[in-house]
């Protein structure tokens, strides 16, 4: 009796991975076909295929939307499809796999070459590399954001050794890994394991030099292609091949991409940020609504990046001068991106995958806690439609906050800060500004965002 093996994996590894595995296992059982399915989900590899499993298998089904190690299946007939295909057409996949002919020894070499060519073609997609980084970014954002929000129950300035203070420390540590992880796994997608080290390093540099998550994305691509270039174009003598992946490529790729980040990528972005800050300072005391509009838009441009931080620092600085309006506008604008995405995922469920709707709920929690970074996974996945929507909603919230003469004496806390006595002025109108801004974001996202295709739905999941 012919046996089959399969691997399922979606970018987030939350639902589609296991839905595909269940569909394949259930259908194989109905067809009385022995089958073992390995899942590569968010919790890691489960039901792992052994060498014996693969050796005994007649064929392999790879229902994956992320990079998986295919080298262990070399010499076996392989069917590679999107994970959604396994959910909807498991029976057809199994029939196709059973119909495959076992590969002869003569075909082995040709098969290996074909697999390498296919693997190279798969890794040329900008979107695929970006989504690989996003898939690893999501758990970091969710864990860090929710722990940060929970820490606010201990007040804005809890005792240093208190439990809530430690929750804040853990949350900040997790969020501090966002950019390095994003850059690292973009580079990993491009160059495989040799790209991870330089990607993580340039991601950390982007965090430290003010480039933010946009710098991390650029740095991740640079690191990945530098590592791939070294890997493909600079062969070493066979006697030195052993040190290539652990010494030569990581060192050279990290050196080159790090220098590019320090002197080419970081410098212009830093200059741009300085110019923006000077421009912002020149607007102080001008039209209050225009200032709110500007600060609000800046809060959503890069969601925790240098532009966002410039606006935030501007508002915090004005608190010391007992000018509380800009801080209120800034916090309102910082809350609306994730809140707007939460609303969008609830009112237009057909435009989001199941995983995105679940991520939308987490974004809602982050939104009420003034953690703008909760919108980053959505922005990174569809930047040309989502970021303009976020900017528009935040600008409206900021302008309305200034128009309503709202004020805020504390620099953080979201809706929890509004509950602190005398911390906020014109609380009800301030809340209205936040609601209107979030609705503007939600409506624009719903209008601009396309319905996910089968592959895109799974990828963005």
Automatic annotation (TrEMBL):
Any one Gene Ontology molecular-function term assigned to this protein's record: protein-N(PI)-phosphohistidine-fructose phosphotransferase system transporter activity
The record's section on SUPFAM superfamilies has: PTS system IIB component-like (SSF52794)
Name the InterPro entries on file.
Answer: Bacterial_PTS_Sugar_Transport, PTS_EIIB-like_sf, PTS_EIIB_2, PTS_EIIB_2/3, PTS_EIIC, PTS_EIIC_2, PTS_IIB_fruc, PTS_IIC_fruc
Q: What is the annotated localization of this protein?
A: Cell inner membrane
Q: Which residues cross the membrane?
A: 136-156, 163-190, 210-227, 247-273, 279-300, 387-407, 427-448
Has the keyword Magnesium been applied to this entry? no
**Biological processes per GO annotation:** phosphoenolpyruvate-dependent sugar phosphotransferase system
Q: Which GO terms describe its cellular component?
A: plasma membrane
Bilayer topology reads: Multi-pass membrane protein
Any idea where the PTS EIIC type-2 domain is? 126-458
Alphabetical UniProt keywords: Cell membrane, Kinase, Membrane, Phosphoprotein, Phosphotransferase system, Sugar transport, Transferase, Transmembrane, Transmembrane helix, Transport
Q: Where's the PTS EIIB type-2 domain? A: 4-99
This chain's protein is named PTS fructose transporter subunit IIBC
Specify the species: Halalkalibacillus sediminis
